[in-house]
Design goal:
The complex is a heterodimer. Chain A is of the alpha+beta class. Chain A has 3 domains: 68 residues, Translation Initiation Factor IF3 (2-Layer Sandwich); 41 residues, no CATH class; 267 residues, Ribonucleotide Reductase, subunit A (Orthogonal Bundle), CATH 1.10.620. Chain A has 14 helices and 6 strands. In chain A, helix 9 packs across helix 11, helix 9 packs antiparallel against helix 13 and helix 12 crosses helix 13. The relative contact order of chain A is 0.10. Chain B has 10 helices and 11 strands. Chain B folds into 2 domains: 156 residues, 3-Layer(aba) Sandwich (D-Maltodextrin-Binding Protein, domain 2), CATH 3.40.190.10; 111 residues, 3-Layer(aba) Sandwich (D-Maltodextrin-Binding Protein, domain 2), CATH 3.40.190.10. In chain B, helix 1 links the parallel strand 1 and strand 2. Helices cover 39% and strands 20% of the residues of chain B. The relative contact order of chain B is 0.20. Classes of the chains: A alpha+beta, B alpha/beta.
Chain lengths: 405, 285
Amino acid sequence: MSDPGEPDSSIELGSLGLDRGADVVLARALARPGTRVHVHGDAPELAVHLGAWCRARGHVVVEIREEPDGVHATIESGPHADVRRTGATRAGAVDPRSDGAVVDAPDPAWGLAARGALVEAGTPPMSFALRHKHDVWADEAPQLYAQAAAAQWDPATAIPWDAPLEHDDAIEDAIVQVMTYLVENETAALLVPARFLAQIHPHFREVLQVLAVQVADEARHIEVFTRRARLRRDVLGTSSAGGQASLQTLVEEPDFAEASFLLSVLGEGSFLSLLWFLHEHAPDPITRAVARLAAQDEARHVAFGLAHLGRHLAIEPDLAGRLARAVQRRHDALAHTAGLNADVFEALVLVAAGSLEPHAIEAGHAAVRALVQDMDVGRRRRLQRLGFDDTRARAISELHTRNFM
Amino acid sequence: MTNDTILLGAVAYDPKVVTIWEGFKAWFSDHDLPFDVVLYTNYERQVEAHVRGHFDVAWNSPLAWLQLERAAARIGRAAHAIVMRDTDRDLTSVVVVRADSPVKTLADLKGRTIAVGAHDSPQATLIPLEHLRAHGLQPGRDVEVRHFDVLVGKHGDHIGGERDAARALVAGEVEAACMIDGNHLLFAREGVLAPGSTRILAQTEPYDHCNFSVLDDPKRPILAKFARLLLGMSYEDPTVRTLMDLEGLKAWLPGRTSGYAQLARAVDAFGTIDAFVAQLAEGRA
């Protein structure tokens, strides 16, 4: 407490009134309880406004005089001046690399506060189902987000939409069928991270950002696949019951770890092979470009899935069994379905064949068989990266949906 | 109502009132004081119910306080103001004109139109008009009064009337408008009154606003406990800080009745509550 007679400081407001922002200056000067401040200013309504402002904030106007040169007031800050900091907690730290920055179980009351903010006590808790670091975090998330943000491409300019399409109608029909299939699957790949985004505690900011860009990536993929399909056709291809049944099990998977495993590690991992297959075999530069650009994005999605699941498995080894059972469960649920849309399989053969000539079809068929094998190899490699031994990786990969995603 | 529950009467002038009293109910419960609230749509109904013993304590506007105090006196009972907010003390109201108005003094308002809040608003109508009257301007005779009646019965707790009066001033429909000192600042912040566009012509003497009112013995144990808990409520307690922010206070203070004299003069001069008090005292309300 200051000497009751002597102000601790003096503020010259000039013509700045409380209706024009003088409260910003006063609030700083009166931030400490018991501080006495001499205030001088000549704003027309300063005397009236000072009284009202101090009353509302619990400060005391010790003395106020109107003199020829303006208002002179002595104000003593009230005992509640900085009370909002009492009991406030620092919500981790902004730099994820600093010690303790990203905590294991952020307080639900930190809510939407920026990580590193000072959060006032009494903030209502917000319910986030995914609030444990081991559920969602990956140390690579900040870098993956930065890469994703830097790698965003503009569908209007990144793809040579005006390039000529010189292949046969049958091949074009096949490409339209493949695009139809890709749109359906990318829609699932959009919905899965979108569903979990709203459940993740915002303390894990970089994870939210990675998933948000992932959703935006899929939105862009849906756009370019649709646009490619419509270049020479007004109608799209078919959507099969088996394909949708497979995607339904993915979209409705309630557990983040299991959904990430099924989507990113197994599904998008398999799609990497598919997209590079299209990049290699598509007859036109437009299809090759959309496949290449989508594959680059999908590689990041797979990388994040591997990173956060790898961390989760290191902390909770039992998760491995749960992930394996999720694949088994999905396989059993889909056992009665037809698997990959037959139209899609034929379309892939045609795209790789380039024509309906028997020898070309034979080559295309072999290429698709090689694709399926390549998908399996890729899945096993990624499973091994997560710590599954070769036998288990092979078994899990074989159980993966025949719909690829 | 059970004997160990303290029942409050309050007027629902805004949806936030439910949040406030539900929050306080939980807080009192945590402090071993069963508490509940009856909400009324207007203060007259609340004052009448209070006299009839429907609840223990009222959260009263200053006008409702005078209604209760006078009705109680007429029937041989006594009203007491036991607790009030720190922000209920020493408010002032202001009479505001446009910055470029030719009106320089209160006397210049003669023959002109002044905007006020609701008919029953102490702060935006009764006290400012009493201020004018004390300075020789009889409302209705020397100045034309234009009321902005938003939610009459709520005694101006809803500031919509004050805001509408301020808008009428900006629009040039009236020569002056009345409002609480703090609302002159608030309306500037809201953009209703552009900074520098208005001038404060007059400011009333300080007056007090709401209080928790009781009838008869204010030292009944349950009332004493209620008052003691309120006075001990701390703004440092995050569980009630939000409620205190909503209710607009930093601390509860002991009630005092010395700050209602201006309003008493106003209602005497204008006969605002005479009929209601008489009806209440005679059991006709």
